Queue: 3 jobs
Job 1
Amino acid sequence: MTLPFQTDTQAISLTPDGPTIPALGVGTWAWGDAFFWSYGKDYTEADLLAAFQASVAAGVNFFDTAEVYGLGESERLIGRFLQQVDQPVTIATKYFPLPWRWSPQAVADTLTASLDRLQLDGVELYQVHWPLDFFLGQKDLMNALANEVKQGRVKAVGVSNYSAKQMHEAHGYLADRGIPLAVNQVQYSLLHRKLETNGVLDMARQLDVKILAYSPLAQGLLTGKYAASESSKPEGARQLNPRFSQAGLTKIELVLQTLRAIATAHDKTPAQVALNWLICIGNVIPIPGAKNASQATQNAGALGWSMSADEHEQLARVTQAWC
């Protein structure tokens, strides 16, 4: 498919009357997660506080978390960090509809627990983490979320990992309550472009639903930090991912070469180019992780400039295999 190309996207409204956020956020899956991301080994709470402060200072004041990240630790960390800044910060979190949560009251109770950990009275965006509706159907689930908007604890409603059909269904149920569906959070990067061919991106445009792109740097593959010619390996469970093997890294070498060339032309880094590629699509908000101030500052450098349309198309062409 032919992707749109925009050069002036710096901020995006989640809904027509809802909060406006920068065209780049911070994903906090790694904040407090000791299994996959090895929290407490190669980075600490002090590092994450520095990342939080550096992001806010750079104007990237949108943070996406979830109750399951670090089993609540991500929310607790953000709650503590919020007490140490005086600038406005936008928070999104998520409800995980596990099988035993079969009542609308479970949604309200889960939100209450998240707000307690975040030390907040409400959040700008509340999302359904996965489209699991074993006992609580989508209609009841969306109505429970709509109730929270009406009560003022949530300003906008989103979903995550929803297919085009599921997104359309959720949108319809919310529309019946006069509430727009704000976002669908899905994996999207130069190395994971499935939503361009499975109908999700087209449906999002049709419904005016924003895409929150998680893993926009492919868990570090697009930063240029890892190369087939080097022996460096990521920490944590990523070591088991075959994409970080020599064969996997060899497969993406042309992508990395293209990123480096464009980065050099704009005095940027490969990671900033990879993020800017998503931002230039419009209606897409990448939420890369940041485990320290340096990473946060680098991510923020994806804003305030734009690659050319030809460069955008070149990257789309060399990553066509990942559509």
Job 2
Amino acid sequence: MMAEPRIDVATMRRALSTAEAVMALNPPESPMAEGYRLFRVSGGDVAWMDLPANSGAYAVFGSHPRCDVKFAPGDDVCVRHLVATCCNLGDGSFGLRLMDLQTSIPFFVDDDVPRRSIVVSGPLLVRIGKHVVGGLPVGSRAASKVLQVSSCGMSEPPRALESVSAKADVDAAPPPLPVPVPSPTEGITTSHRFARGEISHITSVRPVSHIEEMIASRAKSGYVRLTLQSSERSAAVELPQHALDDGVLLGRADNCLDRGLRAVLSTHISRTHLLLLRDGAEIMALDLCSTNGTRYGGQKVRRVMIPAEGLALTLGPELTLIWHPQT
């Protein structure tokens, strides 16, 4: 894992000046009432997109041609590297959430602390490999106060995710659940000054987890049930509901230890295909600019809100994800 940033803070701030100059010459065609203008700077090259708040929009950063904000392919970024979403904060304002998609390359702000998932109010500037990624808030509701959250829309301390083996006997009592040691930065809010004299506040939150890390031995209170089904195989999965606050990543993983999942998650889906994420009362399925797409009701979709009665999604050409009704 890359433990130190590859560019310094002075270079990061110069990249911000470059981005602001370029974007000032390219105002939005339809100005946003509120949201974030996201950008990526690689050397002198700038790419950007507008992310409206309260629209369900999100952005995928990576080197894959389908990504919303693209990096040039290289050893310092992954095919699908980050997801950015606007989120509603507890005080009625909105902020930006930035999530690493379980890559080997963390991102850094200006304090050289490696991070995986953050919520920010105000402007944002981070370093990823030799690149700079940022966001400038637009609108009267853009937050300027210190965040009192540990995850989007939440006010409680971060909780460790539960993780147990799927091999346990369903008739036996469930084994004790190991608790991962949290990062020293989780739940801590720090203040930074990036742009326009504004002070930004960044809270580190628990990172996205991969689906096989979350398999439970059997259904119980506080869990949701999924079935992944191909033409020949299927696997049932139980996820702790609170894991959805941090994000659950579904995709092809070469190091997946569970044989049932490894057989179902075939080469027809992307390594990082779908993100299951809760924001407030809504649970969303976000397609991560996958190669073969996600379909709902026969139509290719990018984002689907999962209702209490459940649904079925098709990932790639043949894999079906069944989200069972909540009981």
Job 3
Amino acid sequence: MPEDDLESLPGVGPATADKLVEAGFESYQAIAVASPGEMSNTADVGESTAADIINAARDSADIGGFETGAAVLERREEIGKLSWLIPEVDDLLGGGIETQSITEVYGEFGAGKSQVTHQMAVNVQLPHEHGGLEGSCIFIDSEDTFRPERIDDMVRGLDDEIIADLLERREIEGSPGDDDTMNALLNSFLDHIHVAKAFNSNHQILLAEKAKEIARDNEDAEFPVRLLCVDSLTAHFRAEYVGRGQLADRQQKLNKHLHDLMRIGDLYNTAVLVTNQVASNPDSYFGDPTQPIGGNILGHTSTFRIYLRKSKGDKRIVRLVDAPNLADGEGIMRVQDGGLKPE
């Protein structure tokens, strides 16, 4: 049972409280950031009643009002930075991937988008002094890209100093060069990655709701959820909504899905990392014709947009396309057997 007493809100009795919890509105804060229409549809309450419940929750949670810039600065100090462990890229991103934000990585096939999601699923579990967030990862897989074997490669590819520290922290006996020791370390990493395969766009949206439950249940755990990966965000939407006639429906559905992901990031201090497919713009006579799909909905909702493109051999160009507080720029990384590495 959640700590907040939902029955103290106006119009909420035991039955309504149960409906709210089942629909994911398990706290004052979760209710306060909902819309009356959303609550009416998912929790089976009247829209006017939903509005009264939401307003009362906002008062109780002290949310939705104005605050000073100093207060915003103080609150932003709680935001974590998930390191890529590539100094050039981390400098580009102001320290790494932010929690409470959506970071979109797009690029053509083979550019390394899934490599980034796998590497971040490893890095998020590292101690803070090694660039991690000491948290677990939720991985929504819509393109059958998740491979435990690749996690194995990346765990073994960590610096010896980091591996030695991890073995001590996780109370795993043995030396870094021993296969049994490294297998035990790998299993400890895989235990903190929650993976689900999305079969269509509706299932993907449902999994986002399930992800919120996992984040809530692990909020006070040793490894709280600090990273939510969706690889890829747009594949199912692109396949199921074909043609201009269905574009509006697709964008409306995608918009709701993005706001569900954003809510998880805000409520549980989680970094949201999504990959996106691209299309070629035939009208582009100059510059790179590659454009991310998802339109303005995705462009406006993503806090950070990163464009990956291939270079020579295992090199990849990491270009920061859009960020609210950072200048555009580029960095270089390598995709190797041991994971993402500096140039």
